[in-house]
Amino acid sequence: MPDVNLDVETNAMAADKTAVEKLEQCVMNWQTQMSAALAELLQKQPQGKGPLAEIDFWRERNATLSALSEQMKLPTVKKVLDVCSIVNPGLVQNLDLAELMKYHVEAADNNLTHGTGFNVVLETIPPMMKALRMVWIISRHYNKDERMVPLMERIAWEIAERVCRVLNIRTLFRENKEVAKEKTLEAKRTLELWKSCYLEVRAKIEASGRDQRWEFDRKRLFEKTDYLASICQDLFKIMQVLEEFYNIFGAELKAVTGDPKRIDDVLNRVDGLIKPMENLTFDPFSITHSHQWKLVMDDFKNEVQVCDFSFVENIISWIKIRLHENTALSRPDADMSPLCTGY
C-alpha cells in the first residue's frame, strides 16, 4: 500500500495531486501484478491424466483467485480505487476486476470435491455417470463438449489404469485360479459398465427431449476401455482353457491309462502355454501393441490344438494297448480249445 493517509475523505484526497500520483502508481502496480498472476494461472494445466488431477487443478485455481478477490475487497483497496475512479476512471477500468471475477466464478463452479462420483470402482460407475450428467447441466464451464470430453477422458484413463494395475499378466496365471478369474471378470465388467452407463444416460436424455444433446467423441472415451475389455476376455479364456486341461490330465486319467509319464509330458506342455505371456517384451494393454498381442493369442490357440491332439492321441494309444492286451489274453484259450476237444 502507498504511504498515504487513507483516513482522509475521498473527494479531499482526490484533490491532493501528490496523494493521487502515489495512488495511481499503486493501482498500476496492482494491474501489473494481477495480469502476471492471471497469465501464469491460465497457463497451468492439470498435472496427471486422472480425474483427480482435474479436481486438484480447479481447487488450486479457486484458492488463488479467491485470495486475489478477497484482497480487492479490502477497505483500504476499495478506498484507493474510489479515489482513482474520480480522477482517472480509465485506470481503474484497465484493472479489469470483471475479468478477475469471471475466472473466479468459473473456478468456484468447477471446484469439485473427491467424492464417490470419481471413485472409479464397479459399484460407483452408474452414480458417477449421473453426477457427470448433472455437472453437464449445472456447470457454466463443463456445459461445452470441448470441456466435458477431456474430463470424461480422464475418468476413462483412470478406469483403464486401475485395470492395468490390478491385472499383472506376468503373474496373473500363477495366482489362485478362482481369484484370478474373478478379478479378470470384474475388470472386464468395469470396463464394459463405463460404456453401457454412458449409453444408458444418453438414451434417457434423448427420450426426454428436454436437455442438451449428450453425444461425445466415442473414440476418445471408449477406444482404450473397449480394447482392454477384449484383452480381459482373452485372459479369461486362457484361464478357462488351462483349467480344462488340468482337469482332464489329472490323477484319474493317469490311473485309467496307466501311463503317468506320458500324461506328465502333456501337462508340461500345458504349463508352457503361459510362458509367452509371462515373458512379454511389450505392454499388452497398450493399443499400439494390439498386433503383437494378436500374434501371441494366435500362437496360444495353435498350442492348444497341439495339446488337444496329444489328448486324443493318448486316448487312442490307451485304447490300442488295452485291445492288444485283451487279444493277447484271449489267444491262449483259442489255441488250447482244439486240444481240449481231442481228449
Automatic annotation (TrEMBL):
GO molecular function: dynein intermediate chain binding; dynein light intermediate chain binding
GO BP terms, alphabetized: microtubule-based movement
Residue ranges constituting the Dynein heavy chain tail domain according to the UniProt record: 20-309
GO cellular component terms attached to this protein's record: dynein complex
PANTHER family per record: DYNEIN AXONEMAL HEAVY CHAIN 10 (PTHR22878:SF63), DYNEIN HEAVY CHAIN 6, AXONEMAL-LIKE-RELATED (PTHR22878)
Protein name: Dynein heavy chain tail domain-containing protein
